[in-house]
């Protein structure tokens, strides 16, 4: 083999730069430029700027709000459980609106067992 065949052929530097500039145009090029401009990020300081007192207050507030919602739902469920409904009324509502008996029971209890109001509410919703 000759010396010329074993030498690696290197492209001319000017052509290589032009090709790279052509590749870095458009969205990808802009993204690359933006990534090079990003500064001020330190991976070790991920939680250093968090105020523990404010975080504690926020968590406490969220916990209290969640507990309050649970208490309201529980009180509502207890109120609805006190309402008596007739088996015939339950079957009537379930069959007329083609809903489950559980859904019909909730609708009747929300309307204090009044079949007329329950039917009106279900008609206006549908």
From TrEMBL:
InterPro entries: Huntingtin-int_K, HYPK_UBA, NAC-like_UBA. Transmembrane segments: none annotated. Residues 83-123 form the Nascent polypeptide-associated complex subunit alpha-like UBA domain. It comes from the Eukaryota. Residues 1-50 are annotated as: Disordered. It holds the Pfam family UBA_HYPK. Residues 13-22 have a biased composition (Acidic residues). One of its GO terms (biological process) is protein stabilization. PANTHER family: HUNTINGTIN-INTERACTING PROTEIN K, HUNTINGTIN-INTERACTING PROTEIN K FAMILY MEMBER. This is Nascent polypeptide-associated complex subunit alpha-like UBA domain-containing protein. It comes from Geranomyces variabilis. The lineage of its organism: Eukaryota, Fungi, Fungi incertae sedis, Chytridiomycota, Chytridiomycota incertae sedis.
């Amino acid at each position: 083999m000759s010396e010329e065949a074993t030498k690696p052929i290197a492209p001319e530097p000017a052509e290589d730069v032009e090709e790279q500039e052509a590749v870095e145009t458009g969205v990808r090029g802009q993204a690359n430029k933006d990534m090079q401009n990003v500064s001020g990020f330190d991976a070790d300081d991920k939680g250093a700027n968090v105020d523990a007192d404010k975080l504690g207050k926020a968590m406490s507030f969220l916990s209290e709000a969640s507990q309050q919602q649970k208490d309201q739902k529980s009180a509502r469920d207890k109120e609805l459980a006190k309402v008596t409904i007739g088996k015939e009324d339950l079957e009537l509502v379930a069959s007329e609106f083609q809903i489950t008996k559980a859904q019909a029971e909730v609708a009747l209890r929300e309307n204090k067992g009044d079949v007329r109001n329950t039917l009106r509410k279900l008609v206006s919703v549908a």
